[in-house]
Design brief:
This protein is about 45% helix and about 10% strand. It is α/β, with parallel strands linked by helices. The strands form 2 sheets. The chain has a 6-stranded parallel sheet, sandwiched between helices. The radius of gyration is 22 Å and the shape is globular.
C-alpha cells in the first residue's frame, strides 16, 4: 500500500510539473504584464522547511524595504509564526494542500522578484526526497526570479563528507540513515550542483559550509529578536552561584543521536553516583515559548558534543545569559568572531571532566553568561543580521 501511495504521489508531482511547463509561457506573459504594477512592491517569498529562523529572516528582509512573506507547507511543534501555512489553510487535507502548493507557486511566478528556500526545496514537492524540485528551479530561472538558497543542517549533511570530518560526528551514533539528513553523498552532490546552476546565491554557515561548495558563508543567518514581547522574551537571567543547590544542566535534543545526549546522560549519572551535586533537565517536543522558560532555570545549557557546530538553541541560551557547552570542530572557520564567542568547548571524551570543572568553579558562570549575552547583542540581533544581509545584497547588485 505504501509503495502504491508513493507511486501515486510521484505521478501527481510529475503531472503537475508537466502542467507548469506548459503554462510557463503564459506565466512569463502575465509576469511582464503585471511588472508595471507589482515592480515597486518588491515581493520576496521565504519558503521551505518551517524552521524557527525562517520567519525571523523574512522579518529582517522586510525591514530593508521588501514586501517579504513567509509561506510554508506545514509547521513543527516549535513555532507556527509564519504568514501562511498551507496545511492550515487546507485544514489537513493532503489533496487540498497539494493543490494550494501549486497555486501558491503560480502566484510567486507572476508576482515575486525573489524567492528564498532551503537546499531540500521551496514551495513545490519533489519526486526525490530532500531534493529541490527541478520544475521549480527551472521556472524561477526561466521567469527571471532570483533564487536564494539557505541551509538548516539536514538539508545538506551527507555521510561521506561528515565522516571525513573525523570523530565524533553526527553519523557516529546514527541508526536512522536518510531520516533527518540527505545522507547519500551522490544525492547531495547532484542536488547542490543543480541548485548552484539555478540560484542567484547560496548561503551556508558553520559545519554546513563543508557540504555546499560555492556558497557564501559570512551571513550567520540565525538572528535572535531581543525586542520580542517588549524585550521580555529574551530577558537575561544570569546564573547565581549557590553551592547549596545542584548544578542545573539543561539540554534540548531535537535529535538525540546527533547531539550526543547519551554521553551527557552517562556523565551526569556517574557524577550523581559519586555524590556530585548536579541535575539534568531535558527539554523535548515543547513549543519554543515553553522551552525558553525552562532554559531560564539553567545554570548551564548543554547544546551538543557530536556535530561540531552550535545550534540556534545555543544562541537563544546565550541571549538569556546562560553559559553554553558545545563541541565546535573548527572554531576559527565556523564561528562568527570566534575570539569573542564564550561557548564552553566540550567533547564526547571530556564531558564528564568539563561538568566537574563547572561544578567546582560555579563562581565563573555568571561572567560567562554575561559574555554570551554581550556576544548576542553585538553580533546576532535582527539589526546585526540586517547589516550583513544588506552587504550581501549590495555585492549581488540588489538595490536596498
Amino acid at each position: 500500500m505504501g509503495d502504491l501511495l508513493s507511486a501515486v504521489r510521484i505521478l501527481a508531482i510529475w503531472s503537475a510539473g508537466a502542467c507548469v511547463c506548459v503554462l510557463l509561457p503564459l506565466l512569463w506573459f502575465l509576469r511582464r504584464l503585471a511588472a508595471c504594477i507589482l515592480y515597486k512592491y518588491r515581493i520576496s517569498i521565504w519558503t521551505g522547511a518551517p524552521v524557527l529562523t525562517l520567519g525571523l529572516n523574512c522579518h529582517v528582509e522586510k525591514s530593508l524595504g521588501f514586501n517579504s512573506l513567509s509561506i510554508v507547507p506545514t509547521t513543527y511543534y516549535i513555532t507556527n509564526k509564519f504568514d501562511y501555512v498551507i496545511s492550515r489553510i487546507a485544514r489537513g487535507s493532503r489533496v487540498a494542500g497539494f493543490i494550494l502548493s501549486y497555486l501558491s507557486f503560480l502566484f510567486v511566478c507572476v508576482s515575486a522578484k525573489q524567492v528564498h528556500g532551503y537546499f531540500d526545496g521551496g514551495l513545490l514537492p519533489s519526486a526525490q526526497a530532500r531534493n529541490f524540485s527541478l520544475i521549480e528551479l527551472f521556472a524561477y530561472r526561466f521567469l527571471g526570479i532570483r533564487l536564494f538558497t539557505w541551509t538548516y543542517g539536514g538539508d545538506v549533511r551527507s555521510r561521506g563528507i561528515t565522516i571525513k570530518q573525523g570523530e565524533p560526528n553526527c553519523c557516529t551514533d546514527c541508526i536512522q540513515v536518510g531520516v533527518a539528513c540527505i545522507c547519500v553523498e551522490e544525492a547531495r552532490v547532484a542536488n547542490v550542483e543543480r541548485v548552484r546552476d539555478h540560484a542567484t546565491a547560496m548561503f551556508a554557515m558553520g559545519d554546513m559550509i563543508e557540504y555546499t561548495p560555492g556558497s557564501r558563508n559570512d551571513l550567520f543567518f540565525w538572528p535572535v529578536d531581543l525586542d520580542a514581547d517588549d524585550k521580555r522574551r529574551y530577558r537575561p537571567c544570569y546564573p547565581i552561584s549557590d553551592a547549596s543547590k545542584p548544578l542545573r544542566v539543561v539540554h534540548a535534543p531535537n535529535h538525540r543521536q546527533f547531539k550526543g545526549t547519551v554521553y551527557l546522560e552517562k556523565a551526569v549519572r556517574e557524577l550523581q553516583l559519586k555524590g556530585v551535586p548536579i541535575e539534568l533537565v531535558m527539554v523535548e517536543r515543547v513549543p519554543n515559548e515553553q522551552a525558553l522558560e525552562i532554559y531560564r532555570s539553567a545554570d548551564v545549557v548543554f547544546d551538543q558534543c557530536l556535530i561540531g557546530f552550535h545550534g540556534y538553541f545555543a544562541l537563544e541560551a546565550m541571549a538569556l545569559g546562560k553559559p553554553v557547552m558545545c563541541f565546535i570542530r573548527k572554531p576559527d572557520k565556523y564561528l562568527l568572531h570566534p575570539e569573542e564567542c564564550p561557548i564552553i568547548r566540550t567533547h564526547v571524551d571530556t564531558v564528564k571532566a568539563d561538568l566537574i570543572d563547572l561544578v567546582t568553579n560555579r563562581q565563573y558562570l555568571e561572567t560567562i553568561g554575561r559574555q554570551g549575552r554581550n556576544y548576542i547583542e553585538k553580533y546576532y540581533t535582527m539589526e546585526a543580521f540586517a547589516r550583513r544581509l544588506t552587504v550581501a545584497y549590495k555585492d549581488l547588485g540588489i538595490c536596498i
